[in-house]
Design goal:
5 helices; Rossmann fold; alpha/beta; 19% strand; five-stranded parallel sheet; globular; 122 residues; 46% helix
């Protein structure tokens, strides 16, 4: 998977740091954003091959950001993996309705997220 670009959007700096280091160590190119609004801007600039996003964030939440990304012809093909503390069935249904291609609840196992990302990036 060397060289594939991932954008991580999460309001918690420690989550962004842990994920960024984990993916960089596997050869991925990583960019981060602290909320959905910045995430959309960085997606336009960075053109990632995968977007990993939290749902609950200030300024613009992950569901709103996902809907906006999936409505943008230049961004709509980017797969979105939600990584969130919201683990109810309805939360996953809402995420899928907003355009999510994957859904993992926090706390997450590094192995599971790496396997999910590998399969999403083919």
């Amino acid at each position: 998977m060397s060289g594939k670009k991932i954008l991580i959007v999460d309001d918690q700096p420690n989550v962004r740091t842990v994920l960024a280091e984990m993916f960089k160590n596997q050869g991925y190119l990583v960019e981060t954003a602290e909320n959905g609004e910045v995430g959309i801007q960085k997606a336009r600039e960075y053109q990632p091959e995968l977007l990993i996003m939290d749902i609950m964030m200030p300024v613009k939440d992950g569901l709103s950001a996902a809907r906006e990304i999936k409505a943008d012809p230049d961004l709509q093909s980017i797969p979105i993996l939600f990584l969130t503390a919201r683990g109810q069935k309805q939360d996953e249904e809402n995420a899928r309705a907003a355009g999510a291609d994957g859904f993992i609840t926090k706390p997450f196992s590094p192995r599971r997220i790496m396997e999910t990302v590998s399969s999403m990036l083919g």
